[in-house]
Write a structure and sequence with these properties.
4 helices; single chain; about 100 residues; Small_multidrug_res; flat; about 85% helix
């Protein structure tokens, strides 16, 4: 169950990272409220997950999924560049996250 909680926390991390773009520097009320809410929920769920999962593994997986999801979503939503090097680096992140998951005790 801790891994499911960690995954949900990471999805919320993607949400708040992308949400920051919509807050316009936290000057827009509702996007800011939603982004801050996702930040709080993501951190709370991360804290729950690392009660069982080693903190180093949990944090690395959380940030890895968050970075991957944010990069992919930002390319679609904001037209950020998609290059071979960015793609290769994202593949490396996926490998790292999978490796941590498979090696976790």
């Amino acid at each position: 169950m801790a891994w499911v909680i960690l995954f949900v926390a990471a999805v919320l991390e993607i949400g708040w990272a992308v949400g920051m773009k919509y807050t316009d520097g936290f000057t827009r009320l509702w996007p800011s409220v939603l982004t801050i809410g996702m930040m709080a929920a993501s951190m709370f769920l991360l804290a729950l997950a690392v009660r069982t999962i080693p903190v180093g593994t949990g944090y690395a997986v959380w940030t890895g999924i968050g970075a991957l999801g944010t990069a992919v979503l930002s390319a679609f939503l904001f037209g950020e560049p998609v290059t071979i090097w960015r793609g290769l680096c994202l593949v490396l992140i996926v490998g790292g996250v999978l490796g941590l998951k498979l090696s976790a005790s």
